[in-house]
Amino acid sequence: MRILFIGDVVGDRGVQMIQTYLPQLKRDLKPQATIVNGENSTPVGRGISQKIYKQLLESGADVVTMGNHTWDNKEIYEFIGSTNKLIRPANFPGKDVPGRGWTKLKVNQATLAVINLQGRVFLPPLDDPFAVADKLVTEIRKETPVIFVDFHGEVTSEKRAIALYLKGRVSAVVGTHTHVQTNDAQVIDHQTAFMSDAGMTGPAAGILGMQPASVISRFLNQRPARYEVETSEPGIMSGCVIDINDETGHATKIKSVLIDHDHPYDR
């Protein structure tokens, strides 16, 4: 089984990059499943709308994951409960959290499970992602060993820690949230694929997808600033492609995907 994962889609430019390049990547890489993190995909870079969610699916996403901006666009409450292709972090606290934290899909004769988790270092104190992962993975492995985890976290140490904690029990742990692709893609002990952060998909000219002026202003004066999404060219698209033995659930290969001005897609 081959999985294509695309990192945080930011604003209109991110959606445009998905619409332009995701069909081409799927044509050339031939993944059996495509997962996209869409938590920054609205024009203001926070949350997701039903229209954009449908656009991501129409462009080729099979599952859309979220993160700490899940609830920022209130429209999500109107549709997250009626779909199994949009998932939010499974460790949001409470008994009646809208939506679901994991999903599954049939891939030929195999079943792929996708889990969304959020870290707690420098982020809101959600339920323990390690404990939640333990419970979910134990149950899911009764049905399938092929499990992909989108771990939405701030620090590489927490992401690396949960990858090692789940080593051999999940097929892949790929980080999101920091919007900068890391150079550490690897298969840990020939079992679990890992990458600290897949990077972002959106405007390349800004600072993590935002217009530079307000971000720099905040560094200079330490006063609150309203961040606006960068809308100019050029764009960037980041992610990874993972090969998995669908009988053992072990990953066999992971490779980064990067499309930008310095890495044009010319297949």
TrEMBL record:
Its cofactor is Fe(3+). The active site is at 69 (proton donor). The lineage of its organism: Bacteria, Bacillati, Bacillota, Bacilli, Lactobacillales. Keywords: Hydrolase, Iron, Metal-binding. Fe cation 2 binds at residues 39, 68, 152, 177. This is Metallophosphoesterase. One of its GO terms (molecular function) is 2',3'-cyclic-nucleotide 3'-phosphodiesterase activity. Pfam families: YmdB. It comes from Secundilactobacillus mixtipabuli. Fe cation 1 binds at residues 8, 39-40, 179. Belongs to the YmdB-like family. InterPro entries: Metallo-depent_PP-like, YmdB-like. PANTHER family: 2',3'-CYCLIC-NUCLEOTIDE 2'-PHOSPHODIESTERASE.
